[in-house]
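Transcriptional regulator with XRE-family HTH domain (Aminobacter aganoensis), 77 aa
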Amino acid sequence: MDLKEIMARNLRQARHDKTLTQEELAHRAGLSMRYVGAIERGDVSASVTVLGQIADALGMEPGELVKRPEASGRRKR
């Protein structure tokens, strides 16, 4: 899974966890709904500026959106 796909998955999960629509998130982040949708589908890569805007809108750190999932069966140190 590449970084674009990881961000797409993490963004979608974070948005769902906060019960926001793509439209609500886009409005909070100052982005278009189409752009947010394209990022969630992994169609486009977000710049670090956009990553920050989205993270701020979700109330989280930008790094959380690009954190790779831990491999199953491996323990965290």
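The chain has a mean pLDDT of 93. The chain has one domain: 3-62. ok done for today
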